Amino acid sequence: MIQHKSQLTGIVxxxxxxxxxxxxxxxxxxxxGGKLVLARIADTLRQVCSELVLVVRPDxxxxxxxxxIALNMHVVSDTAPYTGPLAGIHSxxxxxxxxxxxxxxxxxxxxSRNLVQSMAAAxxxxxxxxxxxVIPRTDGVFHPLHAIYTKDQWVHYIFHAMSEGETSxxxxxxKAINSDYPPITIFTEEDIEHSDPRRISLFDIxxxxxxxxxxxxxxxxKFTPRHHSLx
Length: 231
Description:
Elements: E1 8-13, E2 31-32, E3 35-36, H1 37-45, E4 51-56, H2 64-70, E5 74-77, H3 85-95, E6 100-105, H4 113-123, E7 133-138, E8 141-142, E9 146-150, H5 151-163, H6 169-179, E10 184-187, H7 189-195, H8 208-221
């Protein structure tokens, strides 16, 4: 499925404040498995995306923007005058140069290239002229910060939603589903498990407890048999 690479941009949302982690250090600047979280994400996405975009806050003064540049990512800020993840998604889509983009929050250390490729394939199931967004749903909850979006449809749809005061990516997704536009393919738990059986691609590090668990996962993966695919 690597043929989708030329049609896919990887957009990483890097403007979070890490409040639940104590707020002293960005989650993307912690080490998991001997590597910075942002570097882990970028290394995986580079295998399946033709370009990488990092979206930061306009006033961001930590090391994330410089790290993004060092990782050869195109660094942009949230679409002014808006802030938050919805503005980050819009900004990333606005500068992307491909028909599809995979958007992921910067606190997902185990992004699965197999899952991203499967979602890209699902977006194109009706042909390259009929692309759809692909949104995972687990336990009845949508994951708009680990999803495929199509530029032509969503860059305008999201901007309109923000101009009407909307700030929640999940509500934007739910509204689109209810109105049947823009088109969305829901990636079910069964779909996810085909490509990411342990469902760790959707794992995020919101809390210190999550971080400790993530480090345990990374440590266990060091000893995975060579014939086993990590995805």
